[in-house]
């Protein structure tokens, strides 16, 4: 069993260490305004880049393009960056480093700004470590920073300069917008994306929401029938042991998985919760010199609802196929389940209620078209007789799980 567990762990770590970051269709525009269609390495970067890696053809040599020679680049319809020289305030938001000056301090800097919304009014983002700034432009104005700054008053109280709300009120007017609406906008990506979207809708203007294309569908509900191969061994620490080794037995289970895709790192991480019905019944007969009649009969009748809470990571093969690995912490809720020991004449020696500890599960699977999936999961070393000091049990399950996503 330990060798099997080690093998599965090594397999998962091997997949984790293999980067599935791919080159995707995109383009760049150089300083001479020449547009070049190419393949760009999509790293789903957190910080705004100063360069990117690209290929002219799939089998070609990869090259590096930098901000010195490129004015714009885009990866599919999911992300776009433009080069701009902007006035930026770098005031710290750390409480220990807050300025006592309410006014921002601007410096001219050249950066690739990430386009979030492109339309009648456009929204841009710049991230560098803990520094996060948002910029905007309209049909009649160039790009400038939306101003937000925390600062300390002379009595060391923390205040906020929310001038960005005045900028929105003056530069992005809409007859339907009230001042109360502006006052509820926070200096956060989701709030600003929502506001710029509503502004374009107010003026019946088309827009491109790159943030929406990146996030996609973040929730899946999947029905998951399975075939389980299960074994159980029991040892009693006493002079008259009641031991049993139940052979592997095939059974069936059914789960309903709720999957929540985490909206970062290109949707490669997910958290899942999967209530699952499982049942295991088996009988084992052995010769025993300590039992009258020389025969010991052990029966297990174990039915429960397992609830795996899993962390999952996807590795994309192409647009339709992906491999995933996950690790689960599995809670178990059993009802009217027991292990009984009897003599050959059917006299009961003991009746042990099953109460299982949580355990770990390791899985690897394949998903096609975000609809169909196949997974292998191994659950080692579950203790199911946790109420009994003198009994040790080892319940192991290997599952083959099919999946069909309802939505």
TrEMBL record:
Gene3D superfamilies: Autotransporter beta-domain (2.40.128.130). Keywords: Signal. The keyword DNA repair does not apply. Residues 1-19 form the signal peptide. The keyword RNA-binding does not apply. GO terms for cellular component: outer membrane. InterPro entries: Autotransporte_beta_dom_sf, OM_autotransptr_brl_dom. This is Outer membrane autotransporter protein. It comes from Algibacter lectus.
């Amino acid at each position: 069993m330990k060798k099997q567990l080690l093998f599965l762990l090594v397999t998962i770590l091997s997949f984790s260490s293999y980067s599935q970051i791919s080159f995707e269709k995109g383009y760049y525009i150089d300083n001479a305004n020449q547009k070049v269609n190419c393949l760009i390495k999509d790293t789903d970067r957190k910080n705004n880049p100063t360069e990117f890696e690209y290929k002219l053809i799939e089998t070609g040599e990869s090259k590096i393009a930098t901000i010195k020679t490129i004015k714009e680049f885009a990866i599919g319809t999911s992300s776009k960056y433009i080069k701009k020289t902007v006035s930026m305030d770098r005031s710290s938001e750390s409480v220990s480093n807050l300025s006592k000056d309410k006014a921002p301090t601007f410096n001219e800097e050249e950066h690739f700004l990430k386009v979030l919304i492109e339309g009648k009014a456009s929204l841009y983002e710049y991230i560098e470590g803990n520094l996060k700034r948002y910029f905007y432009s309209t049909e009649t104005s160039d790009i400038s920073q939306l101003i937000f700054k925390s600062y300390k008053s002379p009595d060391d109280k923390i205040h906020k300069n929310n001038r960005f709300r005045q900028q929105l009120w003056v530069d992005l007017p809409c007859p339907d917008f009230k001042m109360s609406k502006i006052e509820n906008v926070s200096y956060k990506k989701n709030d600003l994306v929502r506001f710029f979207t509503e502004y374009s809708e107010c003026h019946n203007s088309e827009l491109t929401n790159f943030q929406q294309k990146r996030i996609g569908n973040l929730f899946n509900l999947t029905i998951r029938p399975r075939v389980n191969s299960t074994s159980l061994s029991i040892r009693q620490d006493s002079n008259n042991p009641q031991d049993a080794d139940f052979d592997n037995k095939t059974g069936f289970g059914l789960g309903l998985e709720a999957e929540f895709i985490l909206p970062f790192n290109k949707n490669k991480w997910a958290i899942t919760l999967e209530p699952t019905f499982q049942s295991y019944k088996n009988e084992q007969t052995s010769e025993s010199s300590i039992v009258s009649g020389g025969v010991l009969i052990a029966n297990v009748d174990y039915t429960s609802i397992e609830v795996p809470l899993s962390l999952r990571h996807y590795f994309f093969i192409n647009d339709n196929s992906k491999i995933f690995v996950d690790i689960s912490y599995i809670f178990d809720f059993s009802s009217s389940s027991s292990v009984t020991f009897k003599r050959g004449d059917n006299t009961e020696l003991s009746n042990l209620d099953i109460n299982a500890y949580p355990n770990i599960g390791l899985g690897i699977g394949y998903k096609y078209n975000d609809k169909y999936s196949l997974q292998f999961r191994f659950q080692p070393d579950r203790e199911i007789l946790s109420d009994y000091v003198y009994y040790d049990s080892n319940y192991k399950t290997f599952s083959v799980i099919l999946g069909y996503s309802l939505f």
